[in-house]
Amino acid sequence: MSTLQSSGDHLTLNADGSSKNILFQADGVQKASVSSAGLFTSTTIDATVLTGNLPAVSGASLTALNATNLGSGTVPDARFPATLPAASGTNLTSLPAANLTGTLPAMAGLYGKLTIWVPSAAMTPTASNGCADRQQVETTAGRPDMDVLDFDDGSDEHAQFSVAFPKSWALGTVTYQVFWTTTASDTDGVAWALQGVACSNDGTIDVAYGTPVVVTDDNGGAAEDLMVTAESTAITIAGTPADDDLCYFRIFRDVSDGNDDMAEDARLIGIKLFYTTDANNDA
Question: How far apart, in whole angstroms, are the C-alpha atoms of residue 273 and residue 275?
């Protein structure tokens, strides 16, 4: 028989019989219970009335925990499955490379516009209407010497060089900047022009260059100043470039251009050639 008994300072609730529970109800609806094994359950516990520190308990059997409520601590490895589900790594940072395996996918950020520096020392005067031979000009002993090709003002003079672009090249147009100097201390101008043609395996090299693109610049007013032109507009390389082609380029001083009014030699130091890639490597 179940009993309710008061003895001294104690109130005893007794559910008589095996596997009988003590039930707490409100308006006929069960709100809590104590099992015969002493397990207390409740539909709701008002957290606002809880005070003090909860005793240490094992969370081994807890399920459906909300991760947003985990404020600190370390989740042990054993709590993770052997194979993690697919997840975005967009916000991951500081990953050690030693922990990466497999093959990285293509990433657009690894290619784009690149530069090749072509010094005058890598150029040669053309056989016809060529510029002066390469010379090394001393500025002051113990300071940088200038390796230059001189182009005079009397007629268009030319030099040439060649580039075997990497396979990652997108086979499109190129642009360039000219690095040059002069012996004069005036602010006269010069006009440079560059044109190119692509030659394929087992194809003739006796082909015409494409349309030249001109870039102009003015001297800064002092001899031996390094002058750098603006980047040119796009140059279309003749011959329909393809992988493994050899591209020939011809640079010249365009004395017929209206900006070219320099009476002395324009000294070519080199050019920066800009090209665009569309692959990560040459595989």
Answer: 7
Task: Identify the three-state secondary structure at position 110.
Answer: helix
Residue 16 and residue 121 share a domain: no
Q: How many residues does this entry show for the chain?
A: 283
C-alpha closest to that of 197 among 147, 240, 157: 240
| pLDDT for residue 44 | 73
Kindly tell me the sign of the dihedral angle through the C-alpha atoms of 127, 251, 220, 188.
positive
Same-domain check for residues 119 and 241: yes
Are residue 8 and residue 144 in the same domain, yes or no? no
Report, as ranges of residue numbers, the positions in the chain whose pLDDT lies below 50. none
How many helices and strands in the chain, by DSSP H and E?
Answer: 0, 16
Residue 105 lies in a domain: no
Domain that holds residue 140: 113-276
Does 184 reside within a domain?
yes
Q: What is the pLDDT of residue 104?
A: 66
DSSP 8-state secondary structure symbol assigned to residue 56: P
pTM of the entire structure?
A: 0.65
Domain total for the chain? 2
> Which two tokens mark 62?
């807890």
| 194 sits in which H/E element | strand 189-199
What is the pLDDT at residue 189? 96
How far is the C-alpha of 241 from the C-alpha of 235, rounded, in Å?
Answer: 13
Measured between alpha carbons, how far is 227 from 233 in angstroms, rounded to an integer?
18
- Residue 33: the pLDDT is 83
**Whole-angstrom distance, CA of residue 125 vs CA of residue 158:** 6
In a domain, 148, yes or no: yes
Residue 230's pLDDT is 98
Indicate whether 227 belongs to any domain. Answer: yes
Q: Which of 30, 45, 60 is the last residue of a domain?
A: 45
